[in-house]
Amino acid sequence: MADDVDLAALDAAAGPRGFDPVRLLLDGLAAIGTIWTFTLMLLICADVIGRSFLNAPITGVAEIAAHSVVGIVFLQVGATIYHRRMTRADFLIDRILRAAPGLGRIIEMLFMLVGAACMAFIAQAAWEPMWNSIGQREFFGVQGLFTVPTWPFRALILLGGAAGALAYFVLLGVEARRLVAPRQG
């Protein structure tokens, strides 16, 4: 069937195994994002029930949901990268790896390096706005009705960018080791 996923191939392409503090950190952040998603789902359902059946909507759900999506994505991006689940043209790199493994590894390393740079730029771009939002006591919402500080969401962008850069750098090291010491057999 065309929609079947070869799980063995996914496991073979997975990152390093064993005790891996980077994996634990990134998977922990992703788990927080997953719990946040579930909590957000419960909040939205409670708002719908309150709004529809009790004529008592929960104030601020739209604002919380809008900002939560960004936070959740940046909490989970590091693990997505580390487990090699980031969207890319695998069909091309797989062909190159089969035809010329050395060239394929070099292309993989360039991909990891560019990815690390992009994620580092995202983290760097979030640094100043985060501190500005703390200094200016920036909030979103309707003053007097519902407000939430902006800085935690900006901090999650910074954290996610740094986590993504870390993931790409670790994978860059994995690819460099594979290039220097290819598997036997």
Describe this entry's structure for a reader.
Helices cover 74% and strands 4% of the residues. With 185 residues, the chain is mainly alpha-helical. The protein is built from six helices and two strands; from the N terminus they run αααααββα. A two-stranded antiparallel ribbon has the order 1-2. The mean pLDDT is 87. α3 packs parallel to α6. The longest helix is centred in the middle third of the chain and has 35 residues, at 101-135. The protein has helices at 7-12, 21-53, 61-82, 90-99, 101-135, 151-180, and strands spanning 139-142, 146-149. The relative contact order is 0.14. The chain is elongated.
The SS-based structural class is: mainly alpha
Topology as a string of helices (H) and strands (E): HHHHHEEH
Global morphology: elongated
Helix residue percentage: over 70%
- Record field, number of beta strands: 2
Strand content: under 5%
Q: What is the spatial order of strands in the main beta sheet? A: 1-2
Q: Mean pLDDT score, rounded?
A: 87
Q: Whole-number radius of gyration?
A: 21 Å
Please summarize the sheet with the most strands.
Answer: 2 strands, antiparallel
Low-confidence stretches: none
Helix count, per DSSP?
6
